[in-house]
Design a protein that fits this description.
It is built from eleven helices and 15 strands. By secondary structure, the protein is an alpha+beta fold. The longest helix is centred in the last third of the chain and has 17 residues, at 292-308. The chain folds into three domains: 7-118, Rossmann fold; 145-161 and 238-367, D-amino Acid Aminotransferase, Chain A, domain 1; 165-234, 2-Layer Sandwich (Dna Ligase, domain 1), CATH 3.30.1490.
Length: 374
């Protein structure tokens, strides 16, 4: 009897977005954690310029080392040619179409890409056009969940609780025309302090806190370095609670983890990039120290948010929990952080599911889906 062939998995990490290093950390964690007895893993990196390379299967080089963030360029296989996908050139300068052919020969793709050009439906659409199965949400869910303005519209339409916010386009600020004045008046109605963030960003990159008009103008300018579309949100007094979600087995209701509460113990003013990835003093309390009934309600709302955007595979849903017990949805992340410091898997581990088991379930779920349009 011939030996059963292993399932071929392409782990795609890096990317053109500002969360390139976070994606590399997640890619390294996956390479270190996937069951190699069951899966044949092919690491594929995307550089900051959008070029695709075969990467070294070396998780240690995809970790933060001496305060230095990892990159795809540092793990490109020696001799592999860094080329744009759009050129349809070969990774190893042999034949045209090597990258498309490589991915077409795998059983499933695991994208570990965050933010624009990966988590926003772009790579999902490419894989669907190519008829390749992949882990995670489809084009629509990825796109609307990446754009926080549309995400909140969908949440509100489904009766889910969100905090006050205003969307600011380039035409709105600064502007003296009636629409610009309306937007500025709406921001004024939010009160102080405010949080200003790119509408299509993540890892708190480009996010600032503003306590006056001068800081607001500066925060909008900072956010626009990453996205011309900005979200201005009223600050919510309360704890930050997160909950991990997995697609239900055989189309059933989504499964949710024990919620966790973020604790910022490194002196940061809010949960910024430093606190998330570089400050070992910041941590999460799992389970969140809140009443059991409120914990169950957060899990219910996490599953409702997952279904509201038509998410698939896995996600992390973030909440605010106010002193009077009110629960507000902040956002859903359809490709949450998967680095060793990330809390998606830590909440599941506290719920009795190891990271290896998580990955196996995510890959098995994707393999059951039909290729192309879902």
């Amino acid at each position: 009897m011939s030996e059963q062939r292993k399932i071929r998995v392409a782990v795609v990490f890096g990317g053109r977005g500002p969360e390139h290093a976070v994606s590399c950390m997640g890619g390294g964690n996956l390479l270190a954690s996937i069951d190699r007895d069951k899966y044949d893993v092919i690491p594929v990196g995307i550089t900051r310029e959008g070029n695709w390379v075969l990467a070294a299967d070396d998780p240690g080089r995809l970790a933060v080392t001496g305060g230095e963030l990892p990159s795809v360029e540092a793990v490109a296989q020696p001799g592999s040619q860094v080329v744009p996908w759009s050129s349809h050139a070969s990774l190893e300068a042999t034949e045209p179409g090597q990258i498309p052919r490589l991915l077409s020969e795998v059983d499933v793709v695991m994208p570990v890409l965050h933010g624009p050009f990966g988590e926003d439906g772009t790579i999902q659409g490419l894989l669907e056009m190519a008829g390749i199965r992949y882990v995670g949400s489809g084009v629509l869910a990825s796109a609307v969940s990446m754009d926080k303005a549309y995400m909140k519209i969908i949440f509100k339409a489904n009766g889910l609780p969100v905090g006050p916010y205003v969307v600011v386009h380039e035409r709105d600020w600064p502007s003296a025309d009636p629409e610009g004045k309306r937007v500025q008046d709406a921001i004024a109605d939010l009160g102080w302090p405010l949080f200003v963030k790119p509408a299509r960003g993540g890892s708190s990159i480009g996010t600032s806190k503003a306590t006056n008009a001068e800081q607001l103008a500066s925060a909008i300018g900072n956010a626009r370095k990453y996205d011309p579309k900005i979200l201005v949100e009223a600050a919510i007094e309360g704890r930050e609670i997160e909950c991990s979600v997995l697609e239900g087995v055989d189309g059933g209701m989504p499964d949710t983890s024990a919620p966790g509460q973020l604790r910022i113990d490194g002196g940061e003013e809010f949960w910024d990039f430093q606190a998330k990835y570089l400050d070992t003093a910041s941590r999460m309390a799992i389970p969140a120290p809140i009443p059991q009934a409120h914990s169950q309600e957060i899990r219910r709302l996490a599953a409702e948010a997952f279904m509201a955007v038509s998410a698939e595979g896995f996600a992390r849903v973030d909440f605010f929990y106010t002193p009077d017990g009110q629960i507000l949805l902040n956002e859903i992340n359809t490709i949450p952080g998967l680095s060793p410091a990330s809390y998606f898997q830590k909440m599941w581990e506290a719920s009795g599911v190891t990271f290896g088991q998580l990955l196996d379930r995510m890959l098995s779920t994707a393999l059951k889906k039909r290729p192309g349009l879902r």
